[in-house]
Amino acid sequence: MEKEEIISDSKDIYRVANTDVLSHLNLEETGLSNQEIDKRISMFGKNKLKEVKGKPLILVFLANFTSMMALLLWASGIIAIIAEMPQLGIAVWCVNIINGLFSFWQEFQAGKATDALKNMLPSYARVVRNGEEQQILAEDLVPGDIVLVAEGDKISVDARLIEASDLQVDQSTLTGESNPVRKVSDAVLKEGLSPFEISNMIHAGTSVSSGTGKAVVIATAMETEFGKIADLTQNMEEELSPLQKELNVLTKQISLIALGIGVVFFVVSVFFVKDGFAKSFIFALGMIVAFIPEGLLPTVTLSLAMAVQRMSKEHALVKKLSAVETLGCTTVICSDKTGTLTQNEMTVSNLWTVDGEYDVTGLGYAPEGNVEVNGASVNVKGNKDLDTLIRLSALCNNAKILPPSEESDRYTVLGDPTEACLSVVAQKSGYSLEEIFKNEPRLRELPFDSSRKRMTTVHQSFGERLAYVKGAPKEVMELSNKILVGGMVRDITESERQEIMEANDSYARKGLRVLAFAYRNLNEVDNLPKAMSAYTPELIEEDLVFVGLMAMSDPARPEVKDAVELCHKASIRIIMITGDYGLTAESIAKQIGIVHGENPRVITGKELYELSDEQLQEALEEEVIFARVAPEQKYRVVSCLQTMDHIVAVTGDGVNDAPALKKADIGVAMGITGTDVAKEAADVILTDDNFASIVKAVEEGRTVYSNIRKFLTYILNSNMSEAVPSAAFLFSRGGIPLPLTVMQILAIDLGTDMLPALGLGTELPEAGIMNVPPRSRDDSLLNKKTIIKAFLWYGLIASIIAMACYFYINFKNGYSFSNLAADGLVYRQATTMTLAAIVFCQIGAVLNCRTEKQSVFKMGIFSNKKVLIGIVFEIFLMAFMMYVPFMQSIFDTAPLGVTEWIILAIIPIPVFLIEEYRKKIVRNKVQKEEQ
Ligand code: ATP
C-alpha cells in the first residue's frame, strides 16, 4: 500500500464500526509483519516530534555578556584604557569574556545533559506485531500498528480504539480540561466534533488515567494533533531552585562587599594617600575585580554535573541539575514498600481455603515446584476448591511469564509481579495457561486500581458468565457473603470470616503479602445491563463467593537495611506509605529497621481520612507507618510534613502518585515499575527502583553543597591576602610601596586560583557526611563560619606569610622598614615574592579546603587528581609569569633565586599543618560532646 492510500483510508476512521476498523484499513488482527513495518518506517519515518527550536544560540550566548556584573566590568575596562592602563583594561575584559564563556558553556552543558536524559529515558509501547504482544520503543511505532494501552501509559500517537475497558484518558495537556475523559471503541457519527471530543480516538501527548484499551495507530510524529500544536512545549520557563536563588543572593552579597571595599580604597587613596583620581580609581577597580568570585558559577555547575553523572551510575537519574542539591537537604523520605524496599520478586508460598492450608515449593518464576501438605504432593485438579482458586488466579491476571531467552537466562515477567507469581502456581499445579484461557475466554476487565485494591475479569466459563475477583483480603471479604466449600456454595458464617482474617493476619505478621480470591455467577444476577461495557465495579463486585487466599513472599532488598541505618545516622526519617496490609507493612518495616518500637502506630487509609491536620502532625512526630492508603492520600502526608518544615522526598510509581511527587521537594519515580506520568512528575528517576539508591543520591546532594562551600572558602581566602598588601600601602600612606600590584591580583584570581578551585568542586563525599543532621533551610553558603574561616583564619595566615616574604626580599637586599624599595629590580622581586607566597599559601589552602573536619591524610593527599593537576598548573603558570620577559612586562614580575624557591616550597607545609591541627581539635571536641 502506498502512503497516500494509507492516509486516505484512515480519514474519518472514527465513523467506522469498531469491528470493521481493521478490515477497513486492510490490517490483520495479528498486527503488522516485519516487512510491512520496514516499509512503513521508510514512508512515515520515526515517531518523533521535530525538535522544538529554543532561543537562538547566539542570543543565549550574548545574554551571558550583558548581565549587570558584566556591564560593570565592560565599563571599568573602558575607564582603565582611558586612564592609560591598557593592560588592566584588557585584563578586566578578559575576566568578563572568560566568565561569559564559562556560563555559556555551563548552560550549553546543562542543555546537553537534558538531551542525554531524554535518550536514557525512552518511552515504550506495547504492540501486537507478527501475531505476538511485544514491547517496543514508542519512536518505532508506525501507522497501522495495534497498540495496547493501560493505566499510566503516555500515549505517543493518534490512534482509533478497537477495544476499551473502563478507559479514561487525561487530555489536560491538550485541552486544559483537568478531568479524565471517558473513551470507548464504538463508532462516532456525530458531526462537528473537535479531534479531542471524538470518544473513540486517543491522542499523542495524553495519558491513560485508568482502564485498558486496544487501538490502531492512525498518525505518528508531526502528523498527530500534538505534533500540529508543536510549540506546546516551547517557552517553558524553569523555576529557580533554592540553590540558584541562594547563588543569586550570594553573587549580590559578594558584589556589594567588593564594591564597598572598592569605594573605601578609592576614598582612602584619594584623600589620605593623595594618589590622584585616575590612579586611585584603577586601584579601587583592581580590588573590586579581585573580590568578585569569577569561578563560582562554573564550579557550581561542574559539581552538580559531576554529581549527576555519579548518581546515574548509582541508578538515580536526575532530571534537573539543581535537584541534586535539594536532595542533600532532605529530612524525611516517604517510601513505598513493594519494589522499593522489597524486591518485587513474588513467590507464592501458601494457599489457603477454608478446608486446609497448602505449601507451594520452588522460588522465582520458573514453573518448578509443587503444591504440598506436610511434604506430600497434592492433586490440585482433584480438589474442587483448589482447582477454582488456581484457575481464578490465572485468569484474573494480565502478566506474562517469559521463558529464559537470549536476553535473560532466567524466567522473567512482563507485567505485574504480583500477578505473575499466580500464573506460576497454576503451572506448578500442572495446568496449561493456554488451555485455561481457551476454556474460559475473557469478556471484560475491570482493571486493578490501587484505591479499590481489587481487580475483576468477566469470563465465559462452560456456559456461565462468571466474574473473577482478586484483591486485598479485607476489601474482598467486605464484598463476600458466600463461601466455596468442597465445591459447594453456601452462606459464609461469622466464624469463617474470623478464621479467614486470622489466616490473613498470621501470614501478614510473617511479612507475607496476601491476596483473596472470590467470584460471582453473573447469570444469577437480575437486571444486569446488556452491554458489558456498562459493567462497573459497583455493579459487579458484590455478593461474592469467597474461594481462598494466596500468600506470597516478597523479600526485603538486602541492601536496604544498611541504607535505612545510614538514614537514621543522618537524622533522616523514613516513613513507609504503602497500599499493602498493616501487619505485612509492619513486619517488613521491623525487618529492615525502619521502626524500632515494639508497637509502632499503623495508620490506615480509612483512619487517615478521619484525622484532622493537627492530629496527623502529632502522629508524624512519632514512629508511624501508613498502610492500606490510597495513593491520593500521600499528597496529604507530604503537605503536612512540609508544614512541619520538613524537606520531603517521596517515592511513587502510579498515575495517582503524580500530585504527591510534584508537591514533594523531591519526587522520586520508579524507573522499572513507574508509569510515564509518575516519571514526568518526578525530579529523580530510580532506574533500579531501589530505596538504597535514594540514600546514595542524598549523600551526593550533601557532597555537592559542601563542595561548593569548600570552593567558596578557598577563593575568599586569597581575597584577604590580596587585600592586606594594598591596605598596608594605603594606611602607611605609601610608606610601604604597594606589595602586590593590581595585575598581580588578577593573575591569582583569574590564573593560578582557577584550576585548583574547580578541582575542589569534584571532591568525593567526606566520611561522616551522613553522620550529621541535614543542613537547615536557613543555612546559607556564605555564613558566619565560612566568613571567619576564609577571611580571618586562612586569610590572615596567608596575609602574614605574604607580607613577611615581601619584607624578606627588601631586608635581604639591604632595605629597612623605613626605607623599602619603591621601584627597580628589588621592588619587582619583592612584589613577585608576595605574589608567589600567596600562590603557595593557596596550595596549602586547597589541600585544607578538601575536608571540613576530617584529616586530609585520611582522605589521601593525592586522592583528588583534579586538585593535584591544578596545583601543578599553578606552579607552572607562576614560573611562566616570572621567567618569560613578555609576562614580566605585563605583571611587573622578576625572576626569584633558589633560596626564594626553597622558602616558597616550604610555605604550604605550615599552612597545611596548622589547619590539620585545628581540625583535630574540632574533631576531639565533637567526640567529647558525643560521649
Ligand atoms: P506499595 O504502595 O508500597 O507499593 P502495594 O503494591 O501493596 O504497596 P498497591 O499497588 O496500591 O500497593 O496495592 C494495594 C493492595 O492491592 C495490595 O496490598 C494488594 O492487596 C492489592 N493488589 C496489588 N496488586 C494487585 C493486583 N494486580 N490485583 C489485585 N489486587 C492487587
Protein described:
This protein is an alpha+beta fold and 931 residues long. It has 4 domains: 3-51 and 116-223, Calcium-transporting ATPase, cytoplasmic transduction domain A; 293-310 and 697-766 and 778-930, Calcium-transporting ATPase, transmembrane domain (Up-down Bundle); 316-342 and 557-689, 3-Layer(aba) Sandwich (Rossmann fold); 348-553, Calcium-transporting ATPase, cytoplasmic domain N. It has 35 helices and 28 strands. The strands form 5 sheets. Strands 10, 11, 12, 13, 16, 17, 18, 19, 20, 21 and 22 form an 11-stranded mixed sheet that branches. Strands 1, 2, 3, 4, 5, 6 and 7 form a 7-stranded antiparallel sheet that branches. A 6-stranded mixed sheet has the order 8-28-27-26-9-23, with helices on both faces. Strand 26 (648-652), helix 24 (658-663) and strand 27 form a beta-alpha-beta unit. Helix 6 runs parallel beside helix 11 (296-313). The protein is elongated and about 115 Å long. It binds adenosine-5'-triphosphate (ATP). Adenosine-5'-triphosphate is lined by residues 336-338, 416, 418-419, 448, 450, 453-455, 470-472, 515, 578-581. Residues 12-85 form the Cation-transporting P-type ATPase N-terminal domain. It is found in: Cell membrane. Belongs to the cation transport ATPase (P-type) (TC 3.A.3) family. Type IIA subfamily.
Summarize the structure.
By secondary structure, the protein is of the alpha+beta class. It folds into four domains: 3-51 and 116-223, Calcium-transporting ATPase, cytoplasmic transduction domain A; 293-310 and 697-766 and 778-930, Calcium-transporting ATPase, transmembrane domain; 316-342 and 557-689, 3-Layer(aba) Sandwich (Rossmann fold); 348-553, Calcium-transporting ATPase, cytoplasmic domain N (3-Layer(aba) Sandwich), CATH 3.40.1110.10.
